[in-house]
Every structure is written in C-alpha cells, then in structure tokens.
Amino acid sequence: MADTTEAKVLEARACAKYVRVAPRKARLVVDQIRNKSVDQALEVLQFSNRAVAEDVSKVVRSAVANAQNNLELRPDNLVIKAAYVDEGPTLKRIRPRAKGSASRINKRTSHITVIVAPRKEA
User: Fold this and answer.
1) Residues in CB range of 63: below 8 A, 6 or more apart
2) What is the pTM of this model?
3) What is the CA radius of gyration of the chain?
4) Can you name the CATH fold of 22-118?
5) Which of 90, 88, 91, 85 has its CA nearest to residue 115?
6) pLDDT by residue (tens digit) across 79-120?
7) Strands 102-107 and 110-118
8) Is 30:82 a contact under the CB 8 Å cutoff?
9) In the 8-state DSSP scheme, what is residue 21?
10) Can you tell me whether residue 77 is helix, strand or coil?
11) Which of 114, 110, 91 is nearest to 20 (CA)?
C-alpha cells in the first residue's frame, strides 16, 4: 500500500490557465510532447512553428522546476507522464456586419496541464 501512495507523490505538475489560444490548436502541440523525456520535449517545442509552443514550453519548465524544488528530483531523469489541454471560458465578441446585423466571434481560452515523473515510473 505504501508503494501506491509513494508513486503518486513522485510526480510534479504545472498548469497554465486562461491561455488565449483555442484548445484545438494547443492540443496539436501538446500531443507531440507526450511520453517524451523533458529534454526531447523542450527541443520539439523550441523548433515548433506554432505560437502556443512557447506557452507549453513555459508550463513544461515550471513542472520541471516543481519536481526539482518540491520533490528533489533530478531534471535530466524526468519524463512527461501526462500533458493535456482543457477548454477555458470563451470570450464572446460581436463583429458588425452588413445591414445593421452582427455576428458572434468566440475567442477561446485554454488550460494547459503538464505532469512530469521520474523515468522508471512513467
């Protein structure tokens, strides 16, 4: 029983909320780094053409820092165990159209979460 509780403790997480990017676009980047080592993931994000890659990179670095400072884990031994994007609140805006009508513009937001764990557990 002690092993299961210890396994849950040895993972660090970081979350960025209300990121101003559509979740569908953010998931394309997050899917590329799942189950990779932290070094590989940061390299993939560095050379990605997507703008959200910078935000995802910040979240990965934050999760590594949490693992290093709070759990005293070595950063070179970490793997991205889970990474997912949830939908945040949508900002609803109005665009004027012809003949006095209006159409809705949805500005979507995302919550990006990354969980890192030591290599043997992931």
Assistant:
1) 12, 13, 14, 114, 115, 116
2) 0.84
3) 18
4) Ribosomal Protein L22; Chain A (3.90.470)
5) 85
6) 999 999 999 999 999 999 999 999 999 999 999 999 999 987
7) unpaired
8) no
9) S
10) helix
11) 110
